[in-house]
Amino acid sequence: PVRHNLNDPVTGLPVDLSGCQARGQIRRKALDATIVVAFNTAIASPPTEGWYEFWLTDEQTAAITCGDKLSDPESLYEWDMELQDAAGNVTNTFWGVVRVKAEVTRP
Question: Among 9, 4, 8, which residue's Cα sits nearest to residue 42?
Fold first, then answer.
């Protein structure tokens, strides 16, 4: 899993994630209606320390289609990660482009 600590940019102190939910998705393009895969997420305990995690299982990752090369358009996706607090406010914490490569080594 990716483990991230969210700190207040002014005070530098951890953000209390009590009552928050983390969510993230991968889509072919950001505005596409179809979700390719949703990340598994967890707010770490205790939530007052500001840690959360997100990950994909081996099975989720294997189900993402890709081209023969990383440069192929079929290998290109967009993703983001958000935190929603108890009041419904949403903060984007990560976003970007991801390129998917086929697994070479298999059992």
Answer: 4
| DSSP symbols for 54-81 | EE--HHHHHTS---SSTTSGGGEEEEEE
Q: What pLDDT, in 10s, does the model give residues 5-50?
A: 999 999 999 999 999 999 999 999 999 999 999 999 999 999 999 9
Which residue in the block uniquely carries the two structure tokens 């899993």? 1
Say how far residue 75 (Cα) sits from the centre of its chain.
17
Q: Identify which of 38, 44, 67, 50 has the alpha carbon closest to the alpha carbon of residue 7.
A: 50
Q: Which of 80, 81, 83 is nearest to 17 (CA)?
A: 83
Report the side by side order of strands in the sheet with 37-38.
Answer: 37-38, 21-27, 76-84, 90-99
